[in-house]
Amino acid sequence: MWLSITSSVVSLGYMLGLCYLSFIGAGHLGRYYRRYWIRSDDLLHFLAFLLLTLLLRVMFSTQMYRKYLRHPKRWAAGLALTLAIFIESVQLVLPTRHATWFDLCLHAAGICAFLAMDKAIEGPIERLVA
Known about the structure:
Layout: H1 2-23, H2 26-35, H3 42-61, H4 63-66, H5 72-93, H6 101-129
Protein backbone atom coordinates (compact mmCIF):
# COMPACT_ATOMS: atom_id res chain seq x y z
CA MET A 1 0.00 0.00 0.00
CA TRP A 2 2.87 2.39 0.78
CA LEU A 3 4.16 2.06 -2.80
CA SER A 4 0.71 2.86 -4.19
CA ILE A 5 0.45 6.03 -2.13
CA THR A 6 4.05 7.10 -2.72
CA SER A 7 3.88 6.54 -6.47
CA SER A 8 0.56 8.38 -6.64
CA VAL A 9 1.97 11.40 -4.77
CA VAL A 10 5.14 11.45 -6.88
CA SER A 11 3.20 11.11 -10.15
CA LEU A 12 0.71 13.81 -9.22
CA GLY A 13 3.51 16.13 -8.07
CA TYR A 14 5.39 15.55 -11.31
CA MET A 15 2.28 16.28 -13.39
CA LEU A 16 1.63 19.49 -11.44
CA GLY A 17 5.27 20.47 -11.92
CA LEU A 18 4.97 19.92 -15.67
CA CYS A 19 1.85 22.07 -15.76
CA TYR A 20 3.54 24.82 -13.75
CA LEU A 21 6.55 24.90 -16.06
CA SER A 22 4.27 24.80 -19.09
CA PHE A 23 2.09 27.68 -17.97
CA ILE A 24 4.52 30.19 -16.46
CA GLY A 25 5.66 33.08 -18.62
CA ALA A 26 8.25 32.40 -21.28
CA GLY A 27 10.49 35.11 -19.78
CA HIS A 28 10.76 33.17 -16.52
CA LEU A 29 11.66 30.00 -18.38
CA GLY A 30 14.26 31.88 -20.37
CA ARG A 31 16.02 32.78 -17.14
CA TYR A 32 15.99 29.13 -16.04
CA TYR A 33 17.33 28.01 -19.39
CA ARG A 34 20.16 30.56 -19.40
CA ARG A 35 21.08 29.62 -15.83
CA TYR A 36 21.47 25.96 -16.75
CA TRP A 37 22.88 26.46 -20.27
CA ILE A 38 19.88 24.93 -22.01
CA ARG A 39 19.87 26.05 -25.63
CA SER A 40 16.79 24.14 -26.80
CA ASP A 41 13.97 22.56 -24.87
CA ASP A 42 13.20 19.86 -27.44
CA LEU A 43 15.04 17.16 -25.51
CA LEU A 44 13.31 18.31 -22.32
CA HIS A 45 9.87 17.79 -23.90
CA PHE A 46 10.82 14.26 -24.95
CA LEU A 47 12.42 13.27 -21.63
CA ALA A 48 9.68 14.85 -19.50
CA PHE A 49 6.99 12.68 -21.05
CA LEU A 50 9.18 9.58 -21.13
CA LEU A 51 9.67 9.95 -17.37
CA LEU A 52 6.00 10.82 -16.80
CA THR A 53 4.88 7.65 -18.57
CA LEU A 54 7.32 5.60 -16.50
CA LEU A 55 6.03 7.11 -13.25
CA LEU A 56 2.42 6.51 -14.27
CA ARG A 57 3.23 2.94 -15.34
CA VAL A 58 4.67 2.19 -11.91
CA MET A 59 1.72 3.90 -10.21
CA PHE A 60 -0.92 2.01 -12.21
CA SER A 61 0.93 -1.29 -11.64
CA THR A 62 0.58 -1.12 -7.85
CA GLN A 63 -1.99 -3.20 -6.00
CA MET A 64 -4.29 -0.25 -5.27
CA TYR A 65 -4.86 0.34 -9.00
CA ARG A 66 -4.64 -3.28 -10.15
CA LYS A 67 -8.03 -3.95 -8.57
CA TYR A 68 -9.65 -1.54 -11.01
CA LEU A 69 -7.37 -1.35 -14.06
CA ARG A 70 -6.39 -4.24 -16.28
CA HIS A 71 -3.80 -2.61 -18.53
CA PRO A 72 -1.51 -0.26 -16.57
CA LYS A 73 0.65 0.45 -19.62
CA ARG A 74 -2.34 1.66 -21.65
CA TRP A 75 -3.62 3.79 -18.77
CA ALA A 76 -0.18 5.34 -18.28
CA ALA A 77 0.20 6.18 -21.97
CA GLY A 78 -3.39 7.47 -22.19
CA LEU A 79 -3.07 9.76 -19.17
CA ALA A 80 0.32 11.07 -20.35
CA LEU A 81 -1.10 11.81 -23.82
CA THR A 82 -4.15 13.49 -22.27
CA LEU A 83 -1.85 15.72 -20.20
CA ALA A 84 0.22 16.57 -23.29
CA ILE A 85 -2.90 17.62 -25.21
CA PHE A 86 -4.18 19.57 -22.20
CA ILE A 87 -0.90 21.47 -21.82
CA GLU A 88 -0.72 22.43 -25.49
CA SER A 89 -4.42 23.40 -25.51
CA VAL A 90 -4.02 25.71 -22.51
CA GLN A 91 -0.94 27.27 -24.10
CA LEU A 92 -3.14 28.30 -27.04
CA VAL A 93 -4.88 30.87 -24.84
CA LEU A 94 -1.93 32.03 -22.72
CA PRO A 95 -0.54 35.34 -23.96
CA THR A 96 3.04 34.57 -22.90
CA ARG A 97 3.19 31.03 -24.30
CA HIS A 98 2.59 29.37 -27.64
CA ALA A 99 1.44 25.88 -28.51
CA THR A 100 3.03 23.97 -31.36
CA TRP A 101 2.34 20.69 -33.06
CA PHE A 102 6.06 19.98 -32.84
CA ASP A 103 5.96 20.11 -29.03
CA LEU A 104 2.97 17.77 -29.02
CA CYS A 105 4.86 15.40 -31.32
CA LEU A 106 7.86 15.49 -28.96
CA HIS A 107 5.56 14.63 -26.04
CA ALA A 108 4.08 11.75 -28.03
CA ALA A 109 7.55 10.58 -29.04
CA GLY A 110 8.55 10.37 -25.38
CA ILE A 111 5.44 8.33 -24.63
CA CYS A 112 6.09 6.04 -27.61
CA ALA A 113 9.74 5.60 -26.60
CA PHE A 114 8.59 4.42 -23.20
CA LEU A 115 6.10 2.02 -24.76
CA ALA A 116 8.88 0.62 -26.96
CA MET A 117 11.14 -0.04 -23.97
CA ASP A 118 8.35 -1.13 -21.61
CA LYS A 119 8.79 -4.81 -22.43
CA ALA A 120 12.41 -4.62 -21.24
CA ILE A 121 11.51 -3.03 -17.90
CA GLU A 122 8.25 -4.87 -17.31
CA GLY A 123 9.96 -7.50 -15.15
CA PRO A 124 11.67 -5.02 -12.81
CA ILE A 125 8.45 -3.04 -12.44
CA GLU A 126 6.50 -6.19 -11.56
CA ARG A 127 9.13 -7.16 -8.98
CA LEU A 128 9.01 -3.66 -7.51
CA VAL A 129 5.26 -3.63 -7.06
CA ALA A 130 4.87 -7.28 -6.01
